[in-house]
Amino acid sequence: MSDIFPEKIPGAVLGLGMAAFLVYLALSCMIQIKKKWWQRALLFAGCWMVSASVIFIGDIINLTVFMLFFLAAMWISCEGSGLKRFTLGLMFSSTLFACNAFFDNSVVMLFYFLKIGVLHNYLYVAVRFLFALLLYLSLRSRKPERDFELSAPLWRLMLTLTSLPVGIMLSLILLRSPNGKKGTVLADGALFLLVILSFAALLRALTVLERQQKLERENMLSLQNRSYYEAMEEQQFEIRRMRHDLSNHLQTLLALPAAQKDDYIMGMLDNPAFGQVLAWCGDSTVNAVLTAKKSLAEQKNIRFIARADIQEELPFEKADICAVFSNALDNAVEGCMALPEDAREIELRAKVGKGILAVNVKNSLKESAAGKEGEGEQPGEQRLPKTTKKDAENHGLGLKSIRETVKKYGGGMEISREEGRFNLFLYLPMD
């Protein structure tokens, strides 16, 4: 049996290390990996175990130890919900262990008994490397977005479905005799093929579910943007109507007794329609949004500072530009509310220059409310901070809406926290 394994140890270590690295890369296509070096090293060690482990027939101890170590490494080193980490960990480990068991106990043994010894030293490493390479290439081309997340019920469903490849893998290892005969090899090959097909089916299901949830989220954000704009339009219509009726109000004032005139005037002033729409800039939508949000900030005792250097109407859909400014300022208001009134402040700067609209919104923020940013769905893209509201699934849509609008127009968005302030910067090309 000793001649089954590689005689050239350095070459074997290199080959197995490359296989482990490919498994690591395959995982990174599916899930966000944390950035600390020891977390990445731990995950690489787990990938080494599942890609290089020797699984003999009935070897339940090694199988259990290796799988638990890999799942623990996934749990510690990866982002996302616990259900996501556990489900993906079972998908990968069951598939790789099935590959190892099939080739270690069927194919290699068959070659051994057939006295084809020239392949013994290379097959052990080559099979693992090639399988890891195929796994990485398949995931690179056909996969959900790396930062995808399903709802808890869907993840529980996917976790239940992973019992299929796990069960087949256990059958391959625990429910056969170690004889290496041709019939056994064919049976094991069929089981191994079922594991591969199960993995492919689970991957396809994840991709479909992720795309469906993404479409639903985009529809929700689109409806939210439209509702922002419609509410603003309704407010503007009310303002125009009330001002049109101003003459009627003046006539009523002339007819009222002197004792009732003051109350009538105060009632008129309390009507938002008579509030002044401030001329912040040359875009009417931005003016309406800034005026409304300034009023909201004043109601909540938030100091509001805004400067918009925009000389003309912006060339974007009104609903989109309304949603960008409204969501940014609503998010800023939410961030201020955890602070004492004397510490609440929102500062907005918007400027058009060189064919680009740049918007910067800063607000004071309680330090304990600070979440963490990381990479988003695309390289260099930041993960949005988690909402502080209890209904996290339905809230936290504001920044997502802004990001989708930014993507729509080919712009960029950055989020940072510094010295107790939340900073949102975005730009939109106007070409």
Order of helices and strands: HHHHHHHHHHHEHEEHEE
Mean pLDDT: 77
Oligomer status: single chain
Q: In DSSP terms, counting alpha (H) and pi (I) runs of 4 or more, how many helices?
A: 13
Tertiary shape: elongated
Helix content: 55-70%
Rounded to the nearest angstrom, the distance between the terminal CA atoms is 70 Å
Q: Which structural class best describes the helix and strand composition?
A: alpha+beta
User: Which stretches are low in confidence, meaning pLDDT under 50 for 5 or more residues running?
Assistant: 1-7, 371-382, 387-396
- Strand share of the residues? 5-15%
Widest sheet: strand order? 1-2-3-5-4
> C-alpha Rg, in Å?
31 Å
Structurally, the number of domains stands at 2
The major β-sheet equals: 5 strands, mixed
Compute the number of strand runs: 5
Structure description:
By secondary structure, the protein is an alpha+beta fold. The chain has two domains: 217 residues, no CATH class; 154 residues, Heat Shock Protein 90, CATH 3.30.565.10. The chain contains 13 helices and five strands. A five-stranded mixed β-sheet has the order 1-2-3-5-4, covered by helices on one side. The chain is elongated and about 110 Å long. 33% of the residues are buried.
